[in-house]
Amino acid sequence: MVSGNKRSGCWFTLVCVSEERLPPETFEQLAMPHFDRLYNFACWLTQDRQEAEDLVQETYVKALKGFSSFQAGTNFRAWIYKILRNTFLTSRTGLKAAATVEIDGEEGDELLPAVKETPESILLQRSDGLLVQRALEQLPVAYREVILLCEVEEMSYQEIAVTLAVPIGTVMSRLSRARRGLRAAVQTMQGAGG
To answer: Rounded to an integer, what distance in angstroms lies between the CA atom of residue 74 and that of residue 66?
Structure first.
């Protein structure tokens, strides 16, 4: 339920005086529908609810301050997820969004066509949630974020490419590796009794 600037269930209120090209109401209309999903994504990235709350709040502050750079008619969801991701990366000691390291052999991997139902999406739907969560936590951030953006956030390869600031081929390569890593981690945990 939305009431003025307050939204029930949120832990902060969007308050701003802005001199941007687009009115602040436009920012709120574009940004607030993504709040819950951004928070969910932040929880997966940080593995800590308090840190995720801080990350989302900082993302909204940065997005609002930089709203004049957003071009109306472009993909707002990819734009705000990119801000969240970059904020997360810069919050980590020694990590900078611009200083990401390419994972060996990414470009040479076999590229698989996009399909609606994958073994991993079926696994995510049917498996023990805790087991899958633990397996996802074992993945490196680069793989965890791409599989979450694709399978949980249901972003297209193009949206993921914009969000991560990488070519579509890299998205597909990382997704392929992430799926293999997730599958292997789940199998290992199942073999070890969970």
So the answer is: 15
Q: How far is CA 104 from CA 36, 38, 110, 143, 170, in A?
A: 34, 29, 14, 13, 11
- Residues 175 and 150 sit within 8 Å (Cβ to Cβ): yes
Continuous segment of H or E residues that includes residue 4:
none
- Give the separation between CA 128 and CA 147, rounded to whole angstroms: 17
Q: Per-domain residue ranges for the chain?
A: 18-97, 105-194
Assigned CATH class of 18-97: mainly alpha
Please give the model's pTM, rounded to 2 decimal places. 0.61
Would you state the structure tokens that stand for residue 71, as one six-digit string?
Answer: 């071009």
Neighbouring-strand partners of residue 3? 6
Residues 6+ apart with CB under 8 A from 42: 51, 52, 53, 55, 56, 59, 84, 88
What CATH number labels 105-194? 1.10.10.10
Cα–Cα distance measured from residue 12 to residue 5, given in angstroms and rounded to the nearest whole number: 10
State pLDDT tens for residues 2-38: 444 444 455 555 544 444 455 656 888 899 999 999 9
- Residues 83-95 have pLDDT tens digits of 998 888 887 754 4
Buried b (16+ CB within 10 A) or exposed e, 70-80: beeeebbbbbb
